[in-house]
Amino acid sequence: MGTTVRRPGAYICGIDAAMDVIGGKWKVLILWALNERPCRFGELRRELPGVTEKVLASHLREMEADGLVHREAYDEVPPRVEYSLTPRGVSLNEALEPLGAWGRTNILGSSPAPGQVGEDDHVALIAGGP
Q1: Rounded distance between C-alpha atoms, residue 84 and residue 81, angstroms
Q2: Which secondary-structure segment (H or E) carries 83?
Q3: DSSP string of 109-125?
């Protein structure tokens, strides 16, 4: 998997590059939903109330091009397509976990005990994690 380059020479730092990949309201929520399990397009729409079909399709294509999401088309009738996270997408989710913890503590006002997951987290526990 190569490095994602959308704006060659325009990145100032790693955060700038990462924000380009996850920019927008829906991409981090798509990552969150796919962290739970692989999903079909309709399942993702139901998991993310308010996202339009056009935006979801566009974001999934971009995330696939960025190496975050894998699209698996099954040769069945009717056709079935599932989306899942690639190892790069999983690593991005891991990198976003501290940001989620910050938001829970500083914005939502809740903080689970260290090493525990709060009710609103909906994240898979990672073996060997902090």
Answers
A1: 10
A2: strand 80-85
A3: ---PPTT---TT-----
CA proximity to 30, closest of 14, 46, 17: 46
Q: How far is CA 76 from the centre of its chain?
A: 27
pTM for this model (two decimals): 0.74
Which of 67, 35, 30, 31 has the alpha carbon at shortest distance from 45?
A: 30
The CATH code belonging to domain 14-86 is: 1.10.10.10
CB 123 within 8 A of CB 97: yes
Ranked by mean pLDDT, which of 18-22, 41-45, 76-80 comes out on top? 41-45
Q: How many CB atoms lie within 10 A of CB 93?
A: 20
Domain boundaries, the chain: 14-86
Using omega within 30 degrees of 0 as the cis cutoff, is the peptide bond preceding 79 cis? no
